[in-house]
Amino acid sequence: MAIRAAEGTVGGYTVLTHVPQPLSRPFGSAEPVEHEPIEAISVPTTGVAPPGTGFLDGIQRYAVVGRFGLTPVVRGYVAAAVMGRHEQSLSVESQQSEEFIAVNVQRLSDCQARVLEETGLPLYDTGETEREHPILEVHMAAQLVEARREAVELSAARRYLKTRREGWLVLDGSIAPYVDEDDSPRVLGLVKSHETQFLAGSDLRTALTLAARHRTSVFARRIGEQKEVHSWYLRLWPWEGRDLLFGLVRLERSPSAEAGVEASEISSWMLSERSPLSAPDGRWDRLVYPVRQVESYLRAQIGDWL
Amino acid sequence: MIRFEDRRLIGRVVATEAMPAGPHQFQFWTATDTTIGIGAIVRVDDERGRTVYAVVIDGKAYSDLATPLHDVVAAEGDPAGTAAPTRRTEVRLWTAAVLRQQPEEPVQPVSLAGVMLATREDVEIALRMDAYVRANRSSGLPIGLYTGGGMSAPVYLDSDFLLGPESAHLNISGVSGLATKTSAVEFFLTSIFQKFPAHKGTIAAVCVNVKGPDLCFLDQPGELTAADLEMYTQLEVEPRPFESVHYYAPFKADGVNLNTLRSHPDLIETVEPLVWGLREVLDYHEVLLSRDDIDAKSDAFIDFLADRVVEKEFSDEWGTTHRVRTFSDLERLFRSIFEGLEAQGRSDMWRTHHVATIRKVRNRLLNISTRCKGLVTDDGTVSDLPFGEFEDRAVYVLDVAGMDQLAQDLVFTRVVSQLREQLERRDLGVDHVVVFVDELNKYAPGDGPDTYVRKMLLDISERGRYLGLVLFGAQQFRSQVHRRVVGNAGTTIYGRMDLDELATPGYQVLSPATKIKLATLPKGELMVRHPHFTQPVFVAFPRPPVLAGPAGIQRFPPAKDVAFEEAVVAHLTALDGRIIPGKVKEIIVGHRSDDIRRALLATKRARPDDVVAFFRASLGSPVSRERVERASGSVAKLKSVEDPYAP
Fold first, then answer.
1. Which of A85, A275, A290 sits opposite B75 (nearest CB)?
2. Which ipTM score applies to this complex?
3. Is residue B80 less than 8 Å (CB to CB) from chain A?
4. Which residues are CB-contacts of B629 (< 8 A; sequence separation ≥ 6)?
5. Domain B4-126 = CATH 2.40.110.10
6. In chain B, what percentage of residues exceed pLDDT 70?
7. Does the pLDDT value for residue A187 go beyond 50?
8. Where are the domains of chain B?
9. Could B74 and A90 be called an inter-chain contact, meaning their C-beta atoms sit closer than 8 Å?
10. Over 70: is that where the pLDDT of B228 sits?
């Protein structure tokens, strides 16, 4: 094939029909911590999962259940849970959920607001829009639902960390909301999506073309004005012949003086989490089994919501 | 007692469109570390007040692994790779068959509710035992303990359905040595004798010992473990051997040594000889004579003998009056007939019977006392079971283990026929008799010729419950027994089963898991089917309170056969220990051995105060041995009966 002949890589065909949504935050900044420039470092596969680890995940559901005029009334459900792992078995140790109504309160009459309050569900304001826009208002409600999901995740995490005084808490996504927590050094973020690229140039190429069982050097990324977290990429599965991002995760944790050593140890542990495989989930190349189990549990709990 | 509110849910009923819950079967899941297993009884209470009792008949475990390939990928193709840090989520999914619903009507699918382990009271209700155990006049007979989830509960059979009249008979199947069939029956008889209610009448048991020393020590206590004793306590059965056991065994061919393994000097006195004469045998000639050999003409002649000759004054055509009581008398009659015919120069017919037929019948009949030597005597001596005087709660053991199949058939057929006749007349002495016979497949095989024994067993199977004649049959392979015999057994017991046997059509109603459990059942556990139980139930039973055959042989080694004179002395000294052996030997000098045997049997039967005097009187005077000269004169030669066309 011509691409391969020109020293390109081939694979990861995906047939698409729609133009994807624009990325909200495609770029971020990073500072080298371990090496400059970023290097690819082999990770030993002899890692052992530390005992007493918790895994956090959350889910969200929302639906437009009605309208007052053009104003959508959105019902939302969010839930989060932490499953602790002891002697290879997972069990729920912390759980939080919330069901609510999200609506542009400013557009409701007193009577309409009272009717919604009488449902007994909390009423959240999605915020004002410049003009009436039924689709935009649903988008805003969705953002509110996402914010509520992050809130219950944080609440479930706090409860878990307060109960379990030792061991890691692995969560699905960035640890940005947790940087102010006292227990943040025990929190490990496992980021599966790579919408925001913190590296650039050859560093980025090194990161995104990592071979299987390799990690990048640790780098720091800023959270707000004051805080930063350490991060590095890890390739769980070989990507050759597949998409560029296949099996690639980015890990986040609180800054540490032994960043490189700890990154290798954690990476080695994460390689051990490849088994059991979380297939048939489509994200099995980046989704570790315990996080998937938390998600399955939460889905089973909610059942056919609405 | 566990209170309802204290119980912990161990599972939940689940149903999908593909796997719905029905009124007879449903599925539920449990934690992976559950204590329940195949055979466990559970209870489901729904919020509308309906309670369902069910027994677990199948179980499945699976994980969320979509395809084995995912496991291979995760392990990167190396089975010995590092163990996964997380165990996959597993499901324990059980299938339960409904035993009972309360209320009984309307019959509805099982609700999607919580599942609890059954308590002792639940087991009683689930198996519908409450109807006959809790009644004022209980008719429950403990058969074993149901155990499940750390709890055990007695399981009772309804005597009306085990011993009649509602249904009757018990059939037990299982592989030799592992199914503990004999032990189970010994325990059941113990339980029946202790718990059969007095208002239901009297009961006795006749056990046919067809192999080894299995039933030879029912009156001796066996060794029981603490666990056995605990089971006896729970079942409220006393762990003591049978109080009244009567042993019967034929003689060996020598006519004085009993053909039994219960021949230890300490026990031999309790064994009665089983000896029959012509009358006892003639009525059951069909058992002994092959249908292929005995045709209608022979049959007619045997009937003639039975109706007109045996034990009657009978005059032959040559002026001699015969009174045939023994095989010897019969032989004399035959000789008289043949000599008379020869004297008259006739060689074809006697009283419408062809001479060839007469000779054939003579050969076959007289051969019986040879083939069944020890059981059948030529001289008319009889020592039989006490028909008409059977005792309540007594066991009568017929030890025919040392006899050939033909003699075993004869004993079994005659004894059971006699029991049936006497129960019909209500003059046996007891109201119910349990007849236990092992190797039922030999007596009532599913295929092969339609023998007299099989016809008799079919008759008992179908009519016995009305008479109080109950068959406890055991065999390795139920599929090899006539289906009407096993089909009429109201209660069926299964011990450890052979997998090939379980693959036969008779076991199609059992789930695969139940079959596997049956194939691996430990000693002392059984599966029970009883008319009140809508599903088979597994129970454990204690060792019987009697000495097992092998242990009995070790404790009471069989005595060696002794010479004729010594045997006579031994029999008589067993009756009276003061007897001087030399005196007995003096008495029997000059007497024929048949006469000595007859006198000995008469003495044993009578058990007189003065044994020697009675024995001497029974013996009579010594017989002088005289040489009988052949009659002179020529007699026309008969045609050979074997070849009627010979010159």
1. A275
2. 0.85
3. no
4. none
5. no
6. 94
7. yes
8. 4-126, 151-265+392-554, 279-371, 562-619
9. no
10. yes
